[in-house]
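Holo prediction. Input below; ligand is alpha-D-glucopyranose.
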Amino acid sequence: MRFGHFDDQHREYVIERPDTPLPWINYLGNEAYFGIISNTAGGYSFYKDARLRRLTRYRYNNAPLDMGGRYIYLRDDDPHLSGSFDTLRTTPRTWSPSWMPVRRSLDSYECRHGMGYTTIKSELAGIESQTRYFIPLGDNLEIWELTLTNRRSETADLSVFSAVEFALWDANDDATNFQRNYSVGEVEVDCSSSAGGEGVIYHKTEYRERRDHFAYLACSEPLAGFDTDRGAFLGPYRGWDAPQAVEAGQLSGSIAHGWQPIGAQHVKVRLKAGEQKKVIFILGYHENPKDAKFDPPDSQTINKCTVLPIIARYLNADEVEKAFVALRKYWDGLLGKFTVNTPDVHTDRMVNIWNAYQVVITFNMSRSASYFESGIGRGMGFRDSNQDLLGFMHLIPERARERILDLAATQLPTGGAYHQYQPLTKRGNNDVGGNFNDDPLWLVLSVAAYLKETGDWSILDEAVPYDNVPGTEKPLHEHLQRSIQYTLDRLGPHRLPLIGRADWNDCLNLNCFSDTPGQSFQTTTNKEGKVAESVFIAGLFVLAAKEMAVLVESHQSNVEGTPQTFDLQPSTFYLNAASEMEKVVWAAGWDGDWFRRAYDDFGHVLGSKENDEGRIFIEPQGICVMAGLGMEDGRAEKALNSVAEHLATPHGIVLHQPGFTRYYLHLGEISTYPAGYKENAGIFCHTNPWIMIAETMIGRGDKALDYYLRINPSAREELSDVHRCEPYVYAQMIAGKDAPAHGEAKNSWLTGTAAWNYVAITQWILGIQPTYDGLQVAPVIPSAWDGFEAVRNYRGVRYEIKVERRGPGNSIQLEVDGLPIAGTVVPFPPQGTKQVGVLVIVK
Ligand code: GLC
Ligand code: GLC
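Structure of the complex:
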């Protein structure tokens, strides 16, 4: 069952009814000011950091689930109408054009989530409303552009109310420290009409002390009234579904002192039959210089001289339209960098639109703020962000560069890394710390991907501190070297890498042994950590070490004269280290039909036929084959056949089997989840593309695309009643076959699944992959495909690629601008070339 449809031409998902199984959200903003918005206008906004600079309040795990947002109320002021929030009344008095929070049935409803904007359109009793929400490029504010149309045959007298609940202080404090925050709230309302700021509501809690920033709500129309105190607006014992002031058609001009400051505005609109009117609301964030916070300087009044021109600009409908056109152009440009035209609509739609979009969102958010991530808990993850970058390089390489350097600056002198850092301060998070032993290796993969995309070798010479300590700066290439060395310095009894707190699977906590409720599985370490080993890290190490070898060699051939400071090891060092590790994997990490997962603190194997539960895990099968293990002797194929046999389901590939049916003290959080959920045998979508990639490496394009489509959100759209999350983006997890709700997705949007699926489909199945020597085109596509077309912008050149299948296999013959060339890599064209035509014959 579907709840909407894709409009690919406009790059939108169109939701046709408001009561989707879960809130289906979108993101606004792509720079510093961001918003999350649901299909019923729920959500919140923040500047850079959803914890420390959240503008509006949002309560997670609410009932109903999605309550609180950017609400607009409409009221029919016809004096003959009575009653108000009785939603059964046939002649409506008040309603929400976004359905929530009033929930009065609408005659029509449509929500369009697009690239950086959302439009909600509805009609009730002949009054049509359309609200377009977006954040203009370059400014720290959001626009709600409401267009009202009177489709009745007589004049309509309407009242429009806007309402937001302000919370611009620490969002964690906001949810816990009521004895303080019920007393600190302060607002200002500009009632002067001279400076153009009349009616603007300013939220300035904590502005008197250490904050130099405030929030504001402005409106393009003269106000008939306002409220800034929640109690006055809602009335005692009422909620957002039935504000007393909206019912009465009259706001009271309340000024909040403590309690709950809000911004609510009232605009009266008279529309003749057929007439239309725009009302623009702006919710914004603004910073003042520390020494110019107040005007006059010795007062407590906000200095508005720099914010007023911004407000004035965006209250103008032409400026709003210009800003919207600019936003669309921006996304056209980004998404135009890589487009494909294949025989499969789900592939096209995800590659051209939604997967690329989600890659940008995960780049921006890491795992911080979604409808499942509160914005309070986690900052930017080290391994998460390095992997998120893998799909992002070609989109905005300059920002990828900055992110890589920020991440590397949270590396520790040991080569280890903080597991997370705070986006606002860019400092490593001390509460979580480090010792997730896979973390530093992901940096090698992201830097290699950046170099292959851009050829910007100068990044290796950037001076980057350790632990952000000034004076400790070393060139980035030394950070890479230490990342590799970190693993080599931490080998266990089998000479496999020690796992530390956890490897990629945060919930496989072999050194925790926690028997105390509330303890963190990730940071409590009760064991010395000198025994438990990870086959996954071994595979990742081989992959990263081989990347280093190629990087060093390519550096030598691409950069004239090796800089004095270039103290990487020669490529043989990395190749030897990789091959030593491979030997160890074959000796201790191979179980006969698949790769083992780990050794626990007692030295017992996990992910082996010897185990009753957790006999086979997906992660080492994916990463070891990706690292090239078992390609020559059939063991890679064997491992992948075992995945197909034991782990694959119609909804995707589960993490392991059998799921853990009870808590194992020595395994940790993985066994705290009921089997089938999350890390305990859920379909943890992040890992599925590793198997897709591995399948292409052994030449099985049919299998790779089959796996790809099992979790492709668009391909699952028809199952929306089962899947329940948005059909346009990946979710972190789909319940596995052990779970009663097999097939149900959770934790949509912020997941490494976005980048990895993008990499799997574009670089391995479609086979278009940047290398140090040019653009490789080596598709491994299904046998039924007769080919596909793609356009890829790469280092300033537009590659127009046409793939033709002329035989059943995967062998490739390339013609570049009409001339056959050897191999699968299109060499860099002469300087100044703008366009290259590539014909790819697959036989
Ligand atoms: C979460 C974490 C990620 C981890 C994964 C598996 O998605 O953000 O870092 O690898 O879970 O535990
Ligand atoms: C929890 C989650 C896991 C995530 C981790 C991050 O353990 O289950 O998915 O990676 O938190 O801290």
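The longest strand covers residues 276-287. That is the main takeaway for now.
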